[in-house]
C-alpha cells in the first residue's frame, strides 16, 4: 500500500524547499480569499527524497515528486498528524446491546418480514427437527464513502485491508455478521452454522445478566482480512483451534475466541464489481435467543491506492 522512495538529494523545486507554499505552472503562487497561500506541489525539476516522517509529512513540499504532499500523499498515511489513509473508525460512545433473537415469525423471503427485519435460514431445529426460516432484526451501522476516485470499483480482495469489530457475546455461535457493499453485494464475515455446538464467548461476556436488563462485559477486537492465517471463526473453533480462558460470572472460566485476524465465511471476491463510493454497512444478527452481546466500535480499512486524496475525509 505504501511506497517509500528514499534519497539524499534536495526535493522538488529550488533548494529553499518553500515549506509553506508551492509554485504553480506559471511560476506564481495561488492566494486564498483570506490572503493566505495555497500549498501546491512544486513543478520545477524534482529529485525524489523520502516523504514518510512527521517532518516531511508536514512541510508543504512534494518530497517524493509524485504530485501529492503531506497528508494527501499515501506514504504519509498514519504518520505524525496524518490520518490512516483509507480507514474509518466508528466509535459508538457507549456499548450497544445487540438485538437478541428479535423476530416476528417464519418467512420464505425478506418480503414476509417487517421493514427492520430480514429472513434467515436457521437450519435444523435441535428440539422439533426440520429446518426453519425466521425473521430477525439486525444491528446495522452504515458509512457513506465519498473519498474514492469517481470510477473506483472493488476489483480484487487486496482492495480491502480489514474489517474490525470490538465486541463481546456469551454465545458467538448465535451470530451471522456481514459486510454489505453499496450495490447490495455482501460478504458473510461469519455465517450462522446452525443451532448447535458448545458455548464460546467473544471477549469477556457477562453471562449472568438478564434478558430484560443486559449488562456489557469486556469487549475484544476481532478482524477479518484477506491475508488472515486463521480460518473463519467457527471453522477455526470447530477444528480445535486454541481458545482463551476467561473468567465467567459464576467464578469459573469459559472458552473465548482469541482476538485477532480471521478469514471470512464467503470469499472477498463476492465484492468484485461494486463501486467503492457509496454506503458500506456492517450487519450483525443474533439468530438464536437467550444469550446476548454488545458491540463497542467497528472500523473498515481500504487499500489507500483507491483514495483520491488522503488528506480529505472518506465519508
Characterize this entry briefly:
By secondary structure, this protein is an all-beta fold. The chain has one helix at 233-238; strands at 87-97, 117-124, 131-145, 160-169, 175-180, 186-190, 201-202, 220-224, 244-247, 253-257, 260-262, 278-286, 293-302. The chain has a five-stranded mixed β-sheet, with no helix packed on it.
Describe what you observe in this structure.
With 315 residues, the chain is mainly beta. The protein has 2 domains: 1-82, no CATH class; 89-102 and 139-306, Galactose-binding domain-like (Jelly Rolls, Sandwich), CATH 2.60.120. 2% of the residues lie in helices and 30% in strands. The strands form 3 sheets. It has a 5-stranded mixed β-sheet with strand order 1-13-4-8-11, with no helix packed on it. A hairpin with a 5-residue loop joins strand 9 and strand 10 (253-257). The protein is globular.
CATH architecture of the largest domain: Sandwich
Q: In the CATH hierarchy, what is the class of the largest domain?
A: Mainly Beta
Helix content: under 10%
Indicate the mean pLDDT.
81
Strand line-up of the largest beta sheet? 1-13-4-8-11
The CATH superfamily label of the largest domain reads Galactose-binding domain-like
Shape: globular
Report the C-alpha radius of gyration, rounded: 24 Å
Could you tell me how far the N terminus lies from the C terminus, measured between alpha carbons in angstroms? 20 Å
